[in-house]
Every structure is written in structure tokens, then in C-alpha cells.
Hints:
The protein has helices spanning 3-15, 20-31, 40-49, 54-78, 80-89, 91-107, 110-117, 122-131, 136-191. By secondary structure, it is an all-alpha fold.
Amino acid sequence: MRLFTRLYDKVLQWAAHRHASWYLAGLSFAESSFFPVPPDVMLAPMCLANNKRGLHYALIATLFSVLGGIFGYLIGSFAFDLIQSWIMENARYQSAYETAVAWFADWGVWVVLLAGFSPIPYKVFTIAAGAASMAFFPFVLASIVGRGLRFYLVATVIRLGGERMEKVLRQYVEYLGWLLVIAVVVIYLLSK
């Protein structure tokens, strides 16, 4: 059964769709303020499907991610009272939010840059930045740099790897997919 190979082929088809750039923009915006799926899962296949447009896709992901981050900042600034109980009831987000607040106190705007680049949930930091009344323009600048570095790195690595990378991914996608499933199950069982 080649479940992940079929899924991989389907994702490449979606990535080559004529509206894929709009889907990437929407996903990038949503992930920065409220949605849990990172844009990389769409950006990477789009870069594989059309390697020459990879940097253009990185620009789309960066711009719309920063706009989504601004929306998250506004949520934190003006609507935090409405979502605070939800954050505090969800152990994962409560812990991430408390970490974000503590890091803001220690490192300020540098935390936004780190969160924008790393796999840390960026949305938690955008909302926390607004709730903490972080200076807006440094927040936006750090978001542009952090998100831009991340998405341009993904696009550049795929561009450099090119067709060879696509062949290697296709060859090992089943193993990688099942390893990911096993890792998620193990993490879930360990967290119980």
C-alpha cells in the first residue's frame, strides 16, 4: 500500500493548480493568526511543482504571513478578552502563551523574529505581542525578517535541490510518512 506516495502526488497536483498562489496566500494569512497548519506544507510542493517560481511563492507566503501576523497582533490588542479563556483552557496554547509573555519580558522584539523563523507557533507570539502592547513597527519589521528568512530558505533549498530532490523525496516519501505517523503517536502517548 503506497498511501503517502499517492498523497504526495495529489499534493503536487494541487500545488500546480492555477489558483495555488491564492491558496498559499490564504493559508499563510490564517496560520499567522489562528490556523494550526504552517504554509510550508503548501510552499514546498509548489516550489517542487514549479521550481522557477519558488522565490515568487516565498514572497507570497511572506507578505500574507506578515499580514496575518498583523491580524493576530490586532486580536491580541483589541480582542484578547474574548479568546483568553479559550487559550487558558487549552494546555498547549496556555503554555505557549505563558512562554511567549516571559520571552517578551526578557528579549522583546527578538522573540518575534525567532518565532517567525522557527517552528514555534508564530500565531501565539503575534497575539501575545498585541496583548503585551509591543511596539507595532518593530513587530512588523521582525515579522518580515523572520518569516522572510524562513520561506525564502525553503524555496532556495528546493530550488538548489531541484529535480534531484524531487526524485529523492519520491523514493523515500513512504518511509518518511510512516515515520511521521509513528512519531506523532509516540509523542501523543508520551504526553498522556
